[in-house]
């Protein structure tokens, strides 16, 4: 009777140990699946962030190139406008010079007319 109780007790203990081992394995498997799922989920987010970062880097490089080109073009425009302004100033200078020459020529013409008419009028008087 005692030996039978002992055997039953040992059998129940073995059964509990096997049950605990199965539960432990299932828990480990479930924890592994959960961990893999979490890591996969995080990796998707990280991968998307990496892709977005690469896109942003590409856009930044493109923007830098375009900004540089725009800066060069703007410098060319400024140079052209300054040249145009200089040409306008020169035209104004030429115009003033022409007016000055014209005034001098009129003065000379008037003086010549005066000189030419002067002796004729005194002789006729």
TrEMBL record:
It catalyses: L-lysyl-[protein] + acetyl-CoA = N(6)-acetyl-L-lysyl-[protein] + CoA + H(+). Transmembrane segments: none annotated. One of its GO terms (biological process) is endosomal transport. It comes from the Eukaryota. GO terms for cellular component: BLOC-1 complex. Coiled coil: none annotated. Pfam families: GCN5L1. InterPro entries: BLOC1S1. Belongs to the BLOC1S1 family. This is Biogenesis of lysosome-related organelles complex 1 subunit 1.
């Amino acid at each position: 009777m005692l030996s039978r109780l002992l055997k039953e007790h040992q059998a129940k203990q073995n059964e509990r140990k096997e049950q605990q081992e199965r539960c432990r394995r299932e828990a480990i498997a479930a924890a592994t699946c959960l961990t893999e799922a979490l890591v996969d989920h995080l990796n998707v987010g990280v991968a998307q962030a990496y892709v977005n970062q690469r896109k942003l880097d590409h856009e930044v490089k493109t923007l830098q190139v375009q900004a540089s080109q725009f800066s060069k073009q703007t410098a060319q425009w400024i140079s052209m406008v300054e040249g145009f302004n200089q040409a306008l100033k020169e035209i104004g200078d030429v115009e003033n010079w022409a007016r000055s020459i014209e005034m001098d020529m009129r003065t000379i013409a008037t003086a010549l007319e005066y000189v030419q008419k002067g002796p004729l009028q005194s002789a006729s008087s």
